[in-house]
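Deliverable D5.2: sample structural annotation.
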Amino acid sequence: MNIWLSIGLIILALVGGAVGGYFLARKTMMDYFKKNPPVNEDMLRMLMMQMGQKPSEKKIKQMMASMQVQTEKANKKK
């Protein structure tokens, strides 16, 4: 009886650790991406120049604003 209790507690601890680790890692990554967005203005400029477009400051700001709105909408869904 005592061995089954030990095995049950070990399994419970493993499952609890996995679930807790998942949520901790998810929160950490969400905070990281909020502080350091994966795309910035310089990257957009380079991308547009590679596509053969001359990036204007107005167009860059519009694209960044639309990306910010989409990010906020995605965060509200969760």
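Annotation notes: The chain is about 85% helix and 0% strand. The radius of gyration is 22 Å.
The annotation will be released with the project's public dataset once the embargo ends.
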